[in-house]
Every structure is written in structure tokens, then in C-alpha cells.
Automatic annotation (TrEMBL):
InterPro entries: Acyl_CoA_acyltransferase (IPR016181), Bact_Acetyltransf (IPR050832), GNAT_dom (IPR000182)
Record keyword Lyase present: no
Group of enzyme by EC: transferase
Cross-referenced Pfam families: Acetyltransf_1
Name assigned to this protein: GNAT family N-acetyltransferase
Organism: Nocardia suismassiliense
Family annotation (Gene3D superfamilies): 3.40.630.30
Amino acid sequence: MTATHREPGTVGSWTVDREPFDSPTAAELWRAYYTEVSDRWYQLHEDHGTDPAELEREIAATRWTELSPPSGVLLVARYGGEPVGTAGVRLLDTATAELKRVFLRTDMRGKGGGAILIDAAEQAARSLGAARIVLDTRRDLVEARAMYARLGYKESTPHNDEMYAECWYRKDL
């Protein structure tokens, strides 16, 4: 699956393709994702950044095998050919997919890539047979929450007990 989109007035174009969850590109984007969300949490709650050793332990301990076929997919967004973001989709049951680890590098936000990446994730969820998609996030990730609302996601009851989850959303596909 490849989705391509050029924003009016831009030089580059967006593409979204499937990517192995354990590729070097995925690892680079995972690191950027974890660094940002961890630093934001620690700054908000403890007034300091993430301890680099802790970050490395968490990255090393995280395995995203559920974002691989046959019941999952990792998508990588590229802008002008450069990898700049990710979104994962995994089936929770035969009708429900979960959106995981949606991320765009900070320098790429506001260029339309978030909506393009989410649209590609929704298409991937449909291709896995899902009729609905759910996600969780934190309250402090206000940009993400605003984007989900703009894209038709509605707040819902919790579908998991993830330690850092504070808000849950769903959308019928």
C-alpha cells in the first residue's frame, strides 16, 4: 500500500508505505517518538527530561511484533522521500483495530502529514477487516487529541488499561 499526496504550495510530497517494525528506519522513528513523549511526560510531572539510560532501556525492551502481518502493520510517512513519521495498526479482534504510535517529527507538523498518515492507517485497518478503530493517548498530547477530533474520532470508554492512557477514542470505519 502506498499513499501519495502533495500539499498545495509545497515543494515535497507525502508518501506512506508499509515498513517492517524492526527496520533501521522504524528504529530511528521509534527513538524520536519515545524521546518526545517521555520528555514531555517528565517535564510535566517531574520538571526534568528523560534519563538517557532509562530511555535506552525502554527502547530496547519494546517489541512491536504485533505491528506485523497478518494482524498488524507499521506505516512510515515520508516527506520528499525522507522518513518523518509512523503509525501502527493492529487487530484487537475481528472487527476492531487499534491505532498505535502515531508520530510526526516536530519539524514536519502543520504540513498535512498527520491527516495523511491517519487516513493510510484507517485504510490499513479496513484491509485487515476492521469495522472500527480505537486508540488511547495522554491528556498532555493536546495536538494529537485535537487532530483526532478533527478527523472524526469520538471520545469513548477505555478499551485497555495502558499505564499512561488517559483518553480513549474510537471511529467507525
